[in-house]
Structure formats: structure tokens, C-alpha cells
Amino acid sequence: MPNPYIPNDTEDSEKRLLEALSIPDVEALFSDIPKEIRLKSSLKIPGPLPEADVKREVESILKKNRTVKDLRVFLGGEVWPHHVPAVVDEVSSRSEFLTSYTPYQPEVSQGILQALFEYQSMICELLEMDAANCSVYDWSSALGEAARMAARITKRYTFIVPHYISPERLTVLKTYAEPTGIRVLKVKQDVKNGEIDLKDLKEKVSRETAAVYVENPSYLGFIVEHVEAVAEIVHDCGGLFVVGVDPTSLGIFRPPGDYGADIVVGEGQPLGNYMNCGGPLLGIMACRGKLSFIRQMPGRMIGMTTTKDGSRRAYCMVLQTREQHIRRERATSNICTNEALCALRAAVYMALLGPEGFRELGENILYKTQYAVKRLSQIEGVRVPLFDAPHFKGFTVNLDGASKTISEVNERLLRRGIVGGKPLRSSFPELGETALYSVTELHKVEDIRALEEGLRKALEEG
Q: For residue 108, which of 186, 189, 333, 392 sits 20 to 30 Å off, Cα-Cα?
């Protein structure tokens, strides 16, 4: 009889398995899949082949891919190419951290607990907030959780967002909001400078407003300057002020806690995490220190205490509000894991940079942004940017004055080894033929000049 712990494909083995399962054939295992969507022909897979030949074949296929290492990437949006210091990989790949999926046994998980506590502490210092969880899935899920958190705190169910918000982020927000009865409204933004339309905001806030959300820098890269006025309007009606941030901007711009934010969310991918084909990402989430706020924070929070005799520091999970930990239907969220390893990487990254490093990073990106805007704005038929405001990392490129579309230009840029901007017409038709570009500290001056030359030639070609 074949060993039961070794895969067997003999007819006898298959027959006994089917008899044990009381099914006539293997096809019965897939009976729940509709026949109209099932493949009716055999897979065109060559072989069988020796392992070495299979490896060589797969590698030849993979060589067709081109990555950010092979291309100059200026694609704006949700994920960015940032420098990851080698020590981040070194520390996070240690087996003690790499395999620490979750600290369920706190007495034997002091290392990862301390690392996550340090992450929370540095996030609070960066955002100027009082409490942070040790991450959620990404910026989008953090925003959804913030809307639900605001509704639980205020017992109100209207959440106001800016007009120029990431369409993907807005979709996730609505997915989180709809089951709990939260209504999502948009507030107008000035088409000239992107500022929140305060008159429209005053008309839309009410005693039903749980929170107003502003992104700074915005999804399109411009800085919203009148944020304190927004905070005052929402606070006057008894609602909360939620701010979304790019953490790499906070070395040079005011932290959201300084201008009245009650809850802060953002994307931690730039903090020592690779692009990873769009995931996993790192959702930042923090709030003010009111106990009524902290108790409504979803996900995990790590606290510091001492051993029973007071002789040593000790770390543990605190205020556990998850459905897995006794709360059940009273849980603040059904999020049952987090991006612990990504948060650890962010902690290493933030510790490496320190305040001066963050300032230098922010200045570097700001300089590259302004340089790119200046160079591209010199091209005939191109308007860069659309909004008359300071920009950070992201900026818009409009081609209404040119004879080419964004898709045509992007195809021609790609042939030159350049990834162009994200088309915005489907999300914001009022912006016309516009794309969202971005630059980071990884972009060299020669990269930006190559983009300028590539864009100029793409528009000139017949």
C-alpha cells in the first residue's frame, strides 16, 4: 500500500479516495462551479519535463517582464517607488520577525510586541497624535475604518469627503460605509487652486455629520492650505475632523495634529516597503488621546507596562476590540489581522531617518516635484499643473492644448522606457485630457529631463 503521506496518483489510490468521499469521480469536486464558466478543453501545458527544464522555461517567460528597475516610473496614484535602505531588509528578514505572524502569546512575543509599540510611538510623533494602532491593511481600509469609528463616537451617519479623492479609495470607503448606514457626501473644491469650498461645506455639514475628511497633500498632489477653517466648521457642528496624509511630506509640512485632526489615516508603503505589485500595503491610523476615541480604534494596539515585580519592561496587547478576542458582535471591526511585518519595516525606516532624515526626504521630493513641473510646463500644448497651488510628489499634466490623448502619449512614452501618468478623465471628466504624475527621491534630474524629452517627442510624432 502506498504511503498515505506521500502524494499518489495511481488509479487504485484515486478509486479509494473517491469511495471514502462518496462521490463518483473527481469532476464531482467542482460541481459548485457553474458549467458555463468552466474550462472545457485541456490546459496547454507542455511536459512532463525535468525540474531544471521547467525552471529555465519559467525564467524565460519572466524575462519578458519589465519592472521599476528597468523603467523610469512617473505613474501617480496609490503606490510609489521609494528608496528602501538595506538595513530595513536585514532587520525585517530575521526569522524572529519574519515568522512572527501575530503576538497571540504575549509572554513569549516580547520582541515583536516591542517593535510594534515603537512603530506606534513613532507614528504618533510623526502625526502629532496621541494614540495609534499597529496598522490596518492600507490607506483605503484605514479611511473606511475611520468613517465607521467616527460614526460610533458621534452616533451620526454622514461622512463628507473632498471631490478630488482617489476613486479606488472612495470605492473602498463606500464598501465600508454602506452596511452600517453611513452616507458619503462630496464637498466641492475650487477648480483653480483645489481649496475646499467652505461655503459648500457649511451648507452640507449638519447635526448628522459624523466627520469631514480632507487629504493633505491631496490625491492630485496639491496642498490644501485652509485646513484649520475646515476643522473649525466641522468641530462647530459637533463632528470630527479626519485627515489623510502621505507620511513622507511630514518632514516639511505641519502634522495633522497641529491643525485640529481628530483621526489621521494614510499610507505607510513609502516607509521602507516596496511597491510589491500594489500590495501588501500599510494602513496608518491614529487618533487623539480621549479614551472614548481609543476604545473605538479598530485593530491591534500595543501597550507598555512592567513585570509583576516592577523590575522589567513588558509589552502586551491592550483594549482588544477585535471579534476574535471576546468582543464578538460588539467588536469595533472585523479586521482580524494586520500588516505587522510592513509596520516593523516602517519602524526600522523611521528610526533610521529620524527628524533630520524626514526633513531631507521631504525637501528632496519637494524639489524634484517643482523641478518636474517647471520642465514639463515649458512644452508647448502642455499645462502643468492644473491647480494653482504648491504640490508635493504628485502633479497633474493636461494635454487639452495638444493634439494627442493621454493614452497615445503613454504608449509612446512606454516605448522609450518611461511609464507616464495615470489618466483621470474617467474619474474627473471636468479636468479634460489630464494625467496624474508623481516623482520621489529616487528620480534623478536626468530622469526628469528624459521625461521632458520623451513627452515633447511623443507630442511631436505624427
A: 333
DSSP 324: I
Domain over 72-82+355-460 is classified CATH 3.90.180.10: no
pLDDT in tens, 302-313: 999 998 898 999
- Torsion region of 422: left, alpha or beta (phi above 0 gives left; psi -120 to 50 gives alpha): beta
Cell 467616527 appears where? 150
Domain range annotation of the chain: 72-82+355-460, 86-350
Residue 142 in contact with residue 285, Cβ under 8 Å?
yes
Q: What is the DSSP letter of 398?
A: E
Check: CB of residue 223 under 8 Å from CB of residue 250. no
Distance separating alpha carbons of residues 370 and 372, to the nearest angstrom: 5
Q: How far apart are CA 204 and CA 226, in angstroms?
A: 17
| Whether 133 contacts 317, CB under 8 Å | no
The whole model's pTM is what? 0.88
Neighbours of 309 (CB within 10 A): 6
Q: Is the Cβ–Cβ distance between 182 and 148 less than 8 Å?
A: yes
Q: Does residue 220 contact residue 436 with C-beta atoms inside 8 Å? A: yes
Domain 86-350 falls in which CATH fold?
A: Aspartate Aminotransferase; domain 2 (3.40.640)
pLDDT of residue 42: 86
Which residue spans within 124-267 are E strands per DSSP? 131-132, 158-162, 183-187, 209-215, 240-245, 263-267
- In angstroms, the CA 96 to CA 389 distance is 46
Interval 94-116: pLDDT, tens: 988 887 766 666 667 888 899 99
Report DSSP state, residue 323. Answer: I
Please tell me the predicted confidence (pLDDT) of residue 33. 93
Q: CB 247: neighbour CB atoms within 10 A?
A: 25
| The three grid cell numbers given for residue 202, joined into one nine-digit string | 457649511
Determine the Cα angle at 426 with ends 422 and 430, to 5°: 100
Q: Output the nine-digit C-alpha cell for 169.
A: 479609495
DSSP string, 284-319: EEEE-S-HHHHTT--S--EEEEE-TTSSSEEEEE-S
